[in-house]
Each structure stands twice: as C-alpha cells, then as structure tokens.
Amino acid sequence: MSDAPLPSADALEPDPVVEAYKRDLDRSLLRENLRKTPTERVAALMELQRLAEEARRAGQAARRP
C-alpha cells in the first residue's frame, strides 16, 4: 500500500458518466426511500417483485391463443 496522500475532493475531476446520471436522478425518491427502515425497504421491494411477476404472467396469458 502506498503512503502517498489521497487527493482532496476539490482536486478530483467529476466523472462525466456520473454527472450524466445525476442529471436524470429524482433525488426526492432517494430521500423518500432513505427515510424508510431497512425492513420497510425490503417490504416495498417484495411488493414490487410481486407486481412484476403478476405483469409477467398477464403478458404470457395475453399471448396465448
């Protein structure tokens, strides 16, 4: 491991890819999720997974003759 000091945050150039993603990010949704407990986040994720599975099944049923 090097003993060289790390550059300060001011010295780092912003990553253009990260900056492009940040522009389109809805930070209010992030804040809303971070206010939830981990248990609440997992419950919301499980509900989303159930919805996705239901949509998948509905799509398969609609394609059947």
| Number of discrete domains | 1
Structure class: mainly alpha
> Termini, distance in Å?
64 Å
Quaternary state reads single chain
Order of SSEs: HHH
The number of distinct helices, counting runs of at least 4 residues, comes to: 3
Q: Unreliable segments (pLDDT under 50, ≥5 consecutive)?
A: none
- Biggest pleated sheet: none
What's the structural blueprint in terms of helices and strands?
Elements: H1 16-23, H2 27-35, H3 38-63
Kindly describe this structure:
The chain has 65 residues and is mainly α. The protein has one domain (15-63). 66% of the residues lie in helices and 0% in strands. The chain has helices at 16-23, 27-35, 38-63. The N and C termini lie far apart (64 Å). 0% of the residues are buried. The model has no long low-confidence stretch (mean pLDDT 90).
Produce a short descriptive summary.
This protein is mostly helical and 65 residues long.
Properties at a glance:
65 residues, 3 helices, 66% helix, elongated
